[in-house]
Amino acid sequence: MDLGIKGKVALVAAASKGLGKATALALAHEGADVCIVARGQQALDAAAEEIRAATGCKVLAVAGDVGVAAQLEALVRRVNESLGGVDILVNNAGGPRPGVFTDMSDEDWLGAIELNLMSAVRLTRLVLPHMRERGWGRVINITSVAVKQPIPNLILSNAARSAVVAMAKTLSMQVAAEGITVNNVCPGYTLTDRVRGLAESNSASEGISIDEVMARWETSIPARRLGKPEEVAALITFLASQQAGYITGTTIQIDGGTTQSLL
Ligand SMILES: NC(=O)c1ccc[n+]([C@@H]2O[C@H](COP(=O)([O-])OP(=O)(O)OC[C@H]3O[C@@H](n4cnc5c(N)ncnc54)[C@H](OP(=O)(O)O)[C@@H]3O)[C@@H](O)[C@H]2O)c1
Predict the structure, then answer these.
(1) In angstroms, what is the span from residue 198 Cα to ligand 1's centroid?
(2) What percent of the residues of the chain are helix, what percent strand, and what percent coil, each to the nearest 5?
């Protein structure tokens, strides 16, 4: 199926590894030119080279922290100058620190809001004028299954990501008639470096092997396996397509059936 995004410009935040990188690669395979962002220059450059070699598309790599407001305007200006205005925005970032309510200070709360909510608000605000001018745009936020079923030890993630969903739903209604869609994707356990690191730390703290940690996760998932980054990327790429023009304001989990909720 031709997804109709050849020549579109995509900005994928937090994309030197994991879900972001898989998404940038999938969009480039569909012929989009992509800008990828992450803090670490080395991994970012390596990812950009890998995507260029695999797809032949233009790939701009800009080092930056999406949680720092002052960097975002310059980032979007660079994309505009190098590739053109952003047609497809994929909001993504690292996760806030784990813990329960009584662990968190004001600083922790505000940090999570800056990283996970305000990065999406600010990047969306910066690219929206171009999308409105063109009468076409796609905004896709990577959140987590936690927005459907909160995870007990991740209060900051649960709260900040739920705010992203509320923001996206409200914005989607405002801009739907202008050809712009806004959707949220909610991954469950997906095998990235982040999840490998979590398996390692659980293994060390519980005195069991990494394989045992993974096996326990797999048992808790109806599909009996973890997700693959390419599967999350495929969903995002479809939401970015021409064909998905009537899908907006949705929050779609991709979790092998884990979420126990009707909605
Ligand atoms: N994998 C899962 O199972 C899963 C499930 C639900 C939700 N999520 C969420 O999805 C997001 C991506 O997870 P992942 O598994 O793909 O993680 P990952 O494999 O660790 O990759 C994270 C990417 O984000 C970049 N990054 C992190 N913080 C950043 C910042 N402040 N500014 C710019 N780039 C930043 C990292 O590069 P630098 O470190 O160099 O900046 C890296 O490229 C996270 O918010 C995570 O909580 C993941």
Answers:
(1) 13
(2) 50, 15, 35
